[in-house]
Design brief:
alpha/beta; globular
Length: 724
Amino acid sequence: MGIETGTILAELRSASGLTQRQVAERMSANQTRVSRIEAGDGDEVDVAAYLAAVGTPEADTFSELLEQKWAHLPKPSLRHPDLEALVAVESGLSRVRAFLDDGQVPTVLAGQAQLLDRRLEDAGRYLLSLDHEVVYVGEIGVGKTTAACRQAGLVIDEATAADLKGMLLDTGGGRTTLCDVRVETGERFALTVEPVNDEEIYKLVAEVCKGVYERLSGDTSPSVVEFKPAEEVERALRNMAGLPRPARARKGATVAPDPAADLAKTFGSLDAFTAEFAARLSLWRRSRRTIEFEGIDAKDGRQWLRSTFTGINNGRHEDFSLPGRITVIVPFALVPDARLSIAVIDTRGVDGSAVRPDILSHLKDPRAVTLLCSKWGSAPDPSAQSLLTHINETDADPALLDRVAIVALARLGDALSMRHDSGDAAGDVIEGYDIKLGQVEDALQKIGLAGIETFAFDASADDPGKLTTFVIERIAAVRKAQADAAQATIAAIDQMIGNRAQAEAMAALATVSSNLDRFADRQAGLRGARRPAYERLLGAVMTLHARTVWAATRRAGRFWNFDAFQHLGDGAAAEAKIRSGEVVAGLTAIIESDLDNGELASAKGFLMQVHANIAQWESDFVNAARHHATAVYLQPLSRAQGLWDACESEYGLGMGGYREGVVGRLRTWFEDNVELREELERRVARAWETSFIAPLKRAAGQGESHQVIGDPEPDSAAPSRLEA
């Protein structure tokens, strides 16, 4: 046993009203032995005797739990929030695997059994992990960092946090968060920095210097063309180089000189100025990656964390390079439920488009809940709506939007300013919140995304515990969906095992399997794509800021705010979703028809599980298409240096139509390399066979239906298999 078991035993005894002495008397033992058992120092015999002495129904249940064998899943904590569901999953896996090990499994049941086995194990392993992330996404200046700090208790003093001045993370009026910031629970206050690579830093320095130099030369106007990187990046680099931007002068006051501009004047060329700026960074000295608080006082630790984080985030800590990702460790839980391991992620502010690789990665994480934060007046703002529409078009994960919520961030007076359609003003804050959330839900319905959860929050006035409760409820809903899926799979397993000995049931299963197999044969060939994958990339170029496009061309198509290969992958994924949609609808119709057929009632559990798997097969196919598009185009396009140089060189010439020119050059390149499009089509066709048709046939009892249990199903989205 261990300390956890001993603690639970003590809780059971206390709940029963018994003292240690009374339990000892019932065990015919001394109180010292009982105390030792409750401290975790006992064996199975001791625990059995102890529980028998307590004698309550709860003690009997715990005794049964201790006897549970874990042969198929790792043994969970006895305090696991989904322990009951995991026990059921373990029992279900035992039954289905014993069924498969029989050696006499009818062909019509073999594929079904393996399908159920995989689904149940996937659900069990999802529930087993207690790790989740809460991701804050929002436009620059919306207040997401402040909301995240209030929700997670990342404040200097909770008693005075309503003034919004004592946040542990760096907050301001926008353009403050330099990179992804991950906050997690650990033993002490600490910071870990993953730096931007030196090559990228020098590219950014060149852009800062070009912006400064152009302003000095007067060759171009900042209102027409912009060379410098994002404001927060320039601020950090200038601070690292000891060339901070001067504070803005008050009206009528003398403008302070810009040290970077003064330095540029001393050099005869842009290259010389850039080399000097880069040298002043002293990147070779900025090798530190981790820093910890050495004290013991919690309040001092919070103050240390705030000042140290602010220094690193603004490039003012001489030991750290430009951060690409910061991990913050705090010695306290970020949510009240200590059984869950929750990390909070504050993403870099959205500047133009939220369709970024980092944000999409968080959204697709099945263990993450993403909060799309919007200003009160614009919720859901255009960037959030565009992101949700993009996801809806390019991803087939049916649970993805269940992991997303819209948070309307209010300020003082916002709620009371709301009016009903009748013109009547909100009577109180709660009524104002209801009106606003109704408007948000209406806006989501207009873009075909009704049902996304919404929440309103004022960081200066509302109890942050309410936002935390909302977050925990979202995580609980995601976990419950997995538990419900596991229970449905277990029911299907039991129905399948019961069907084996019934001739009528076997005949029904044979009919259902035959229907599925014939459908798979008819749909083995995938209909052609409507348009090439690169059209989505070209469309994105036309919607982005020209400076963002230019920055991407300088990096062969890969920039933090715009990744050409991500858009190529998403273009292929969108087409794959459309191409598979008709087939999915047809298969769904067949299953629903069979479910309505009373003569096939004994196959209902199996049909429901196939229906549930359709979404996963389609998602696998869509993701495979996305992967293949990136794999096919990555090397040829990234190495087309002449193309990128030509696209880069046209920026800032004052000719206009820069983005149109980039689109034209890219289109010509894609059309000249038509063999790549043909190769992508071959791979997508193969992915359709391996991701959708083959699993469907295996479920129907055809094909390779006798895999060794525990071996993964062929995953067409895995690079090692796709490239074969």
